[in-house]
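Internal QA ticket QA-208
Title: Verify multi-chain structure generation after dependency bump
Assignee: T.L.

Test input:
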Amino acid sequence: MIFDQEFETLPREGLEAIQVRRLRAVAERLYHTVPFYKKHFDEAGVRPESIKSLEDLKRLPFTEKQHLRDNYPFGMFATPMDQVVRIHVSSGTTGKPTVVGYTKGDINTWSELMARTVSAAGCGPGDIVHNAYGYGLFTGGLGFHYGAERVGAAVIPISGGQTQRQLMVMSDFGPTILTCTPSYALYLAEAAGDAGMDFKSFKFKAGIFGAEPWSEEMRQDIEAKMGLKAMDIYGLSEMIGPGVSVECIEAQSGLHVFEDHFLPEIIDPDTGENLAPGEVGELVFTTLTKEAFPLIRYRTRDITTLRYEPCVCGRTLARMGKIMGRSDDMLIIRGVNVFPSQVEAVLMDVKGVEPHYLLVVAREKQLDTLEVQVEVNEAIFTDEVKGLQSLENDIHKRIKDMLGVSAKVRLVEPKSIQRSQGKAQRVIDKRNL
Amino acid sequence: MRVEQISVFLENKAGRLSEVCRILGQADINIRALSLADTTDFGILRLIVNDTAKAKATLKEKGFTVGRTDVVAVEVPDRPGGLAQVLGILEEHEINVEYMYAFVQQSGANAVIIFRFDDLDMAAGKLQEAGVTVLPGEKVYAL
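Actual output:
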């Protein structure tokens, strides 16, 4: 099902004409309203009015996560605060999160894009959407909520957690569309089995799963266990939240990027050079229609590909592949962004703990697990078990408070974590993503 | 009245305990008493040896995390109810035992039990007042 027949099936020529016009408009507006961008463009020696074609995009400087941090909290907003009607927040790297704002117009755009998204999974009037994405500062819950309402579906805003209640609602209300992280989907399927329910007997026909990377194998597993079609969705709060790209139920082959709103590029993460369609590199986005929080050439650090052949579903939009990794060291654990440097900062706050640690990420029973290995030195060693256990509990609590994820803390002998001359290996990721 | 004990942090995996014992053996250090407290992830090995300083230095050199704690060594009559009598004295004075373990060898006709208390001197004093023999370090290391 295509929600916006006109814009989702534009011939490439017409689409590019819209992109250039919007690109130049957003660049000009940012140059004149956000001091950071005026300086950034001036330093790069480019003038927004010189943008005449999509080729000119390459001359514009990148925007990095660090720039957002430097302008915390509202320095990147391109509209006065009295135009802003919503603020969302995504997890940050050093305690300070990334703050994004929306105007009324942005909320409307977001609802439209999420309407396109759920439609791509076959959701329309008469459907019941079981929305188990978190509601709150995270964009997932509210994004899906608006999109489902926009297409005329009924939304159950159940949010995350309380699995037994989720199962009761699924069994009694008969929702047809499931929206949550892929790992939580599998967790729900398993919990249903444990409760003596057959997930496949529920009325679900499709699920839209995102906020963390997942593999084609995991799709096979989800579809077999849950009796629904599983679609991948991609988004990030810096763009708008969910609603940047989604797979269609017809092909389930690549995520259609809503290019009339987000202009995608693939670059070599080391040189910054643009790569050809099909080549693997870092995904970069420019927002074309955002009002409160537009960004030019934002480096997502996500590694994937872009291809431009039209799809069997009729959409002409570019398709991005599944996310294959990161060009930095960010981990996504149960949907939460975690940088090793954040864990390090927490550990350094604990008296006596040395900066020798290792993060081991795995997936047990479909849920991501994080183990933090900490070396025991004489400063933190005690000959009583309860002393070391209270140290473990203390570190566990600090990580939970600061990062929002539960980590298992494992105390290890000194020098058992590998020392490195160059960049220390801080992470072992055992998940097969 | 105090006895020196060393403690070693061990990960709960095969071969770690034997590694410690081998290192001590090669350094010609004799283990007088030991106990191992363990959880699923780690263990704490507590040792009384004939040469505390040398044992600690040797293990540290081999990369182990080693601690040093004072404990009390008490002679307990080696007959039924012997230990219960000593524990009864502690209970009477509301003295909490952090941990305890038994010595490998006897002291004459008596067993030797190692105790760790919060307030070592107070506990040792109360035991002595009640007629229990508290052994000095030199005697324990040489047993």
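Spot checks passed. The longest helix of chain B spans residues 16-26.
Status: verified.
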